[in-house]
Amino acid sequence: MNLFENFWEQKLGFSLTDYDRDDIDKADPSNPFDFDFEMFFKSRLYKIDWQNNLQLHETNTLTLGIEYEEEKAKTTYFEEKKADTKGYYLQDQIRLWDAFFTTLGVRIDDHDQFGTYATYRIASAYFFEKTNTKIRATYGTGFKSPSLDQLYGFAGDPDLDPEKSKGWDVGIDQGFYGNKISLSATYFENVLEDLITWDPINFILIQTDEAKTKGLELSTRFRPFDHLAIDFNYTYTDTEDQETGEQLLRRPRNKFGANLSYNFIDRGNIGLGVIYVGERDDTVGGSRIELANYTVLNVNASFQVTKMIRVRGRIDNLLDEDYEEVSGYGTPGISGYVGARIIF
Fold first, then answer.
1. pLDDT digits (tens, 9 = 90+) for 197-210
2. Number of domains comprising the chain
3. What is d(CA 241, CA 218) in angstroms, rounded to the nearest whole number?
4. Does residue 319 come out as left (phi exceeding 0), alpha (psi in the -120 to 50 range) or beta?
5. Model confidence pLDDT, tens digit, residues 10-42
6. What sign does the dihedral 198-202-203-204 (CA atoms) show?
């Protein structure tokens, strides 16, 4: 809703997530350290957001808003629990000379169990029109409270603290031939405090006092035709538990992706994607192991039936790859999904 000749734009959002999970694990010869257990986890998450955008000047947009989030859950191990968070945020976007862009943001979260935390983010970029080059940098902090499942579920710990983080990145984007070819490179570093991790010996969630991640992201996009886009991306990530000096579990050093997207008759889209995940550390029976790399092929399609209705579908793991993201836990084989988006 826009008021006062588009000076004040309001957005009201509501979401509901209903989650129902059943875990069944049976011991078998290929996973001798497993033990038989069955459990369920049911949760419902409500979220409402009221956002206000104030166009103070053609170069300046101020955004402020409030959020309320409530989660209710119960499992085999506890009766219904509840947690709610109130969020307040303020952001200022500045645009100068169609070349310099800066976003300053601050957020306050008030959790009914963990108290109040303030986080912030600063992001700036400068665009050199003559060479079609953009340089950019970001610095920010973060806060994430443990979920009800992490606090009270199987292997949970009600004494867990929120995860906290701070990090920065710097990057460059370069376009060629009217952006028919674009290249991007980003270097990043993050420091994570009270990171929630898994203790494979005691079968319980624990926290790492401090961990660090750093790495490099590379991506490129080719648009040989208006309706065709081909993307490639690669991420190298180095992680370290500052207490033990070891790599963090289940985080691959190397990850690669490729996507092809084609738009047809101005109403439809079809896409093909490949994801490669390299070797990463995990544990079995308290011993550190290396999980094998894997490659997954996915396809997706969508079609605008009317101005109000768009139908979507996708097939994940088209080649029915057998792989593990977590040692001892299987992943879905070939899977299909169909949905629709309706705009009133």
1. 877 777 788 889 99
2. 1
3. 25
4. alpha
5. 889 999 888 887 777 676 666 665 666 677 788
6. negative
Which pair of structure tokens corresponds to residue 102?
Answer: 């800066």
Distance between CA 44 and CA 82 in Å, rounded? Answer: 10
What's the pTM? Answer: 0.84
- In the block, which residue shows the tokens 């991640």? 213
157: amino acid identity, one letter: D
- 25 occurs within a structural domain: no
Phi, psi of 158 (to 5 degrees): -65, -10
Read off the pLDDT of residues 41-51 as tens digits, 9 standing for 90 and up.
888 999 999 99
Q: What is the mean pLDDT of residues 129-157?
A: 90
Read off the CATH number of the domain in which 64 is found: 2.40.170.20
Instruction: Tell me if 242 is assigned to some domain.
Output: yes
**Residue 20: inside a domain:** no
Cα 247 from Cα 175, distance rounded (Å): 36
| Distance, CA of 160 to CA of 155 (rounded, Å) | 12
pLDDT at residue 328 in the model: 75
User: What residue type is assigned to position 196 of the chain?
Assistant: I
CA distance 148 to 85: 13
Has residue 16 been placed in a domain? no
Per-residue pLDDT at 98: 87
pLDDT digits (tens, 9 = 90+) for 235-287: 999 999 998 888 888 899 999 999 999 998 889 999 999 999 999 988 877 77
| Mode of pairing for the β-strands spanning 78-96 and 204-225 | unpaired
What range does the domain containing 238 cover? 50-342
